[in-house]
Amino acid sequence: MKIDSLEGIQLGGITQWIRVRGADVANPVLLLMQQGPGLPIINDATRLEHLLGLEDAFTVVYWDQRGTGLSSRPFGKNSNQFEISVTRMVDDTVTLLEVLHDRFGGKTVVAGFSFGATFAAYAAVRRPELVAALVATGMDIDVPMAEDNAYDFALDAARQRGHRRAIRQLEAIGPPPHTTMRQFTTRARWVANFGGVTANATFNSLLRALLVSLVRSPDYPAAAVIRTLRGFVASQAALLPQLASTDLVNTVPRLDVPVVMAQGRLDQVAPGEAAQRFYESLTAPSKELVWFESSAHSPHLEEPAKFRDLLMNVRASQFAST
After folding, report:
1. Which of 32, 153, 180, 262 could form an SS bridge with 268, CB 3.0 to 4.6 Å?
2. Do 55 and 186 reside in the same domain of the chain?
3. Same domain, 157 and 133
4. Tens digits of per-residue pLDDT, 157-189?
5. Beta bridge pairs of residue 15
């Protein structure tokens, strides 16, 4: 690989970290924006390369966003604390797109996952001239509707299985909105355990996979692993209340970039009904809704070959001469 660098760059007045990987600097740039709130992605670079093999066709940029992973808040009472907000996340995205344009030339393909796709859409609204295409995977579109769907799914599944612990915990937090970490984590735990996040995975297995990837990554020393876990909590506390009213159907009626939506048919976190409504209402130069029939909230991990093909089709359509 000709390009493989871990870099700290200034975004929004703080140092944030990216890993840039690729076989040829002439390839188009692909920015990956992780699920969240609070999850890192640089730790997953090796797994994603193995699953998707994107580095041969793109210059891939893995970015630990503000408050996450290597870009999480430092330790100590006197450490420089910084704001974590939706506005800041979108500002950072725009700034990073400018940095990538200045460095590599041309536009960037932005592939966002879950809330990463939501932030990417907001950035594309502001600066469409920097974005070659938006690939939105499991995009959070209508959060009030999605929360109701996830809660009802988990509670119905628990009752059908006679799972008394799940019923007790879900009834204790009550119906959405779930803006505290305790409420959000309780709901997420049971949605995951009943197959609504990733097929054949549980909340604990997903958490173990995250911890293993952090510990094994050469980019995360022990202190960075601890900061990452603290950042996960801090990001959720800051962002969940702000994201609770998200409704892209009403706030993003138009995107002046090509849009491809990747939607898991089994997704109970960002349900297909919302994706279909957004797709039908959206005005864009071109748009496509691709269904992943065997996937829930992570089609790129559950059906990686199909997801790679999707990105290669985007590359072919946007960079025909490359």
Report:
1. 153
2. no
3. no
4. 999 999 999 999 999 999 999 988 899 999 999
5. 10
